[in-house]
Amino acid sequence: MAHAIRFHEIGTPSVMRWEEVEVGQPGAGEVRIRHGAVGLNFADTYFRSGLYPAQLPAGMGVEGAGTIEAVGAGVADFSVGDRVTYTGSPLGAYSTERIMPAADLIALPDGIDFETAAAMTMRGLTAAYLLRRIYPLKAGDTVLLHAAAGGVGLIFTQWAKLLGIKVIGTVSTDEKAAVALAHGCDEVIIYTREDVVARVKEITGGVGVPVVYDSIGQSTFEVSLDSLARRGLMVCFGTASGPTPPINAMQLAVKGSLFVTRPALADYIADPAERAELAAELFSHVEEGRIKIGINQRYALEDAVRAHHDLESGRSIGSSVFTV
């Protein structure tokens, strides 16, 4: 019998339940996947807490990797036995097996195992669009990246180094600083004891950075704006500390004619051709060892409550996965 983590009400991690589920057969355009590993992402907590809407009761999770066990009518691009990975809706990745739309799947190269895929598909594609689509970065540019020792951060910094981009990263502890530096950060600011804005200005000769990548949200909003150079861009791609505050347009003018964007991964992988292009570049870097995916936390699926507690407490470093 298949099993899945589901939640019937929004709230703390304790609302999640390990349940038996009936998977059934795939319909037209669908496949049934047996998971080999499942990704654990901070965005998962947004659905559970109610920050992102979900139709209850609901499954949990948006990222997984595994093997196709059955194929529905009209599916031409995949066959039984194919290895695949995915990220995005519908919810339900925290499961031993599930039905998925075939159109949302990405073929997984033989050189990438399921745990690595589950640790990197969402994070890697996020790093991909941040670096390759948001702003025309060029070699020699310096950017500020919050949560530099997180799952996205460690992929981002390695990729940035390949592009000749200098990264100033923020972290909360000396341990995380060491990890960020080892993965390509040029400078690390420990925000719990250093003035981030002052250090950024010191590092950049008083100018600030052209781009700030901020996945923290509420607690870093002002810091991010104040770290930007004139006409700089703040990229808000997460809200780990809570939603960003309302934007005062005049404030952007006063601080240097700044720009703010709130992108979502879904809009950068909605087009199959663009998704394939970003995935191919990511997979190539990983397969050839230019980007290394470190998995620092592994959990059994039934331990999802503990995994979410660890994630929200800030104890996690790098990527986390559920083994299946």
General description of the model:
- Keywords: NADP, Oxidoreductase.
- InterPro entries: ADH-like_C (IPR013149), ADH-like_N (IPR013154), ER (IPR020843), GroES-like_sf (IPR011032), NAD(P)-bd_dom_sf (IPR036291), QOR-like (IPR047618), Quin_OxRdtase/zeta-crystal_CS (IPR002364).
- It holds the Pfam family ADH_zinc_N.
- This is Quinone oxidoreductase.
- The protein has about 325 residues and is an alpha/beta fold.
- The protein has 2 domains: about 1-120 and about 295-324, Medium-chain alcohol dehydrogenases, catalytic domain (Quinone Oxidoreductase, Chain A, domain 1, Alpha-Beta Complex), CATH 3.90.180.10; about 135-260, Rossmann fold, CATH 3.40.50.
- The protein contains 9 helices and 16 strands.
- The chain has helices spanning about 40-50, 115-130, 150-160, 175-180, 195-205, 220-225, 250-255, 270-285, 305-315, and strands spanning about 1-5, 15-20, 30-40, 60, 65-70, 85, 95-100, 105, 140-145, 165-170, 185-190, 210-215, 230-235, 260, 295-300, 320-324.
- Helix 2 (about 115-130) packs across helix 8.
- It is globular and about 60 Å long.
- The two termini are about 15 Å apart.
- The model has no long low-confidence stretch (mean pLDDT about 95).
